From TrEMBL, chain A:
This is RING-type E3 ubiquitin transferase. It holds the Pfam family Zn_ribbon_19. It catalyses: S-ubiquitinyl-[E2 ubiquitin-conjugating enzyme]-L-cysteine + [acceptor protein]-L-lysine = [E2 ubiquitin-conjugating enzyme]-L-cysteine + N(6)-ubiquitinyl-[acceptor protein]-L-lysine. SMART domains: RING (SM00184). It comes from Vicia faba. Residues 221-243 are annotated as: Disordered. One of its GO terms (cellular component) is cytoplasm. One of its GO terms (molecular function) is ubiquitin protein ligase activity. It is an enzyme of class 2 (transferase). Its EC number is 2.3.2.27. Residues 119-160 form the RING-type domain. One of its GO terms (biological process) is protein ubiquitination. Coiled coil: none annotated. Keywords: Metal-binding, Transferase, Ubl conjugation pathway, Zinc, Zinc-finger. The lineage of its organism: Eukaryota, Viridiplantae, Streptophyta, Embryophyta, Tracheophyta.
UniProtKB/TrEMBL annotation, chain B:
PROSITE patterns: UBC_1 (PS00183). SMART domains: UBCc. This is E2 ubiquitin-conjugating enzyme. Belongs to the ubiquitin-conjugating enzyme family. Its EC number is 2.3.2.23. GO terms for biological process: peroxisome organization.
């Protein structure tokens, strides 16, 4: 039997797009549903290194994921991130060391020929008579803007200049201070978790408690402390009681 | 909260004013929520992402700019430092190296730089990282180009 007029789109033929890894380009091939399919061949380079590109990705399939991520997790993990920031104690002292100054016209014109200095935290101009802090690297910020940042990190937001601790701090045994910092972080995390427990989100507090107590256990073992910390013990008690 | 709002509004005005300043980045704030932004960035030239338009979603925390924004790729991308399924980005300035001097615009620039300079030693996409770590640059580029074509370019008829 012969057909005189073939249908415009034969149902047995399908146009498929492949990616040729040799040519680095997409190629369109017609594949037949015949019982003995031969592997597709790139019309450019005549190799078989082709990959079928038949999985259309939605541009927005990560969207639902993003919006479904609970704000609780954001809060907890952002908090944890901030608390685990290096040396929160040291920065607290540097924060109090840096004096609050009242901005003068002279200061502004010293920093900028036009006397326009932007606070890099709020991106607003710093004006005369406002309260500000000048870091040792000369960068100037609104006092209210830079102080919360210095509590987290003792570095300049613009140039990452590390603000040195005052000299008395340096005399302290570094290891001791590290341990205390660790304990402080733990205690503060426990306090935050205690706040969270008011609504006791999905047992999250339990999990974090467990992680925290494990962390504490490791911490005390690593610093040569005794084995008086039990992983199941109530946390929030005496965390800095290491001998 | 008030400080973050003020700062974001400042950035919004800056974006409106400097719309043509950086043709590779188009930042858009959600109509009803200033803490949600999306960005369209152009794949950098001379990379497998060239010619692609990639969509990013920003979720800005309450304590911004003391805390970094959370950024994800909404467009699929084959890159060692981007999670293939979730679009999560591994970039130091979005985590430990964050500074409040950064803006959403400069974060976009940093992500474009990351696209051009992947860090295969801290991979979120192990397949992609392993190709680069084993020295198969051609394989990495080919895969990345394929996914750019698949997900980041307008469909050809």
């Amino acid at each position: 039997m012969t057909t005189t007029a073939p249908p415009p789109t034969p149902p047995s033929l399908e146009l498929k797009t492949y990616w040729c890894h040799e040519c680095d380009m997409s190629v369109s091939l017609t594949s037949s549903h015949s019982p003995s399919p031969s592997p597709p061949l790139c019309p450019q380079c005549h190799t078989h290194f082709l990959e079928l590109m038949d999985s259309p990705f939605s541009q927005n399939d990560a969207d639902s994921f993003l919006h479904s991520s609970s704000s609780l997790f954001d809060v907890v993990f952002q908090d944890a991130l901030l608390l685990l920031a290096p040396s929160p104690r040291k920065t607290h002292t540097t924060e109090t060391i840096l004096p609050i100054i009242t901005v003068t016209e002279t200061l502004l014109s010293l920093l900028d020929p036009n006397g326009v200095v932007l606070c890099a935290v709020c991106k607003d101009a710093i004006s005369v008579d406002e309260e500000a802090k000048q870091l040792p690297c000369d960068h100037l910020y609104h006092s209210d803007c830079i102080t919360p940042w210095l509590r987290l990190r003792s570095s300049c937001p613009l140039c990452r200049f590390r603000i040195s601790e005052d000299e008395n701090e340096d005399e302290n045994d570094e290891d001791d201070e590290e341990d205390l910092n660790g304990a402080d972080v733990m205690r503060e995390m426990m306090a935050r978790m205690a706040e969270l427990s008011e609504d006791d989100f999905y047992g999250l507090r339990m999990t974090l408690n467990y992680i925290a107590s494990r962390h504490e256990l490791l911490h005390s073992n690593a610093s040569g402390g005794g084995d008086h910390h039990d992983a199941s013990s109530e946390v929030g008690g005496d965390v800095d009681g290491e001998s | 909260m008030q400080a973050s709002r003020a700062r974001l509004f400042k950035e919004y005005k800056e974006v409106q004013r400097e719309k043509t300043a950086d043709p590779d980045i188009q930042l858009v704030c959600d109509d009803s929520n200033i803490f949600k932004w999306t960005a369209l960035i152009k794949g950098p030239s001379e990379t497998p992402f060239e010619g692609g338009i990639f969509q990013l979603a920003f979720s800005v925390p309450e304590h911004y700019p003391l805390q970094p924004p959370q950024v994800r790729f909404l467009t699929k991308i084959f890159h060692p430092n981007v999670h293939f399924k979730t679009g999560e980005i591994c970039l130091d300035i979005l985590k430990t190296a964050w500074s409040p001097a950064w803006t959403l615009q400069s974060v976009c620039r940093a992500i474009i730089a990351l696209m051009a300079h992947p860090e295969p030693d801290s991979p979120l996409n192990c397949d992609s990282g392993n190709l680069l770590r084993s020295g198969d640059v051609k394989g990495y580029q080919s895969m990345a180009r394929m996914y750019t074509r698949l997900a980041a370019m307008p469909k050809k008829g």
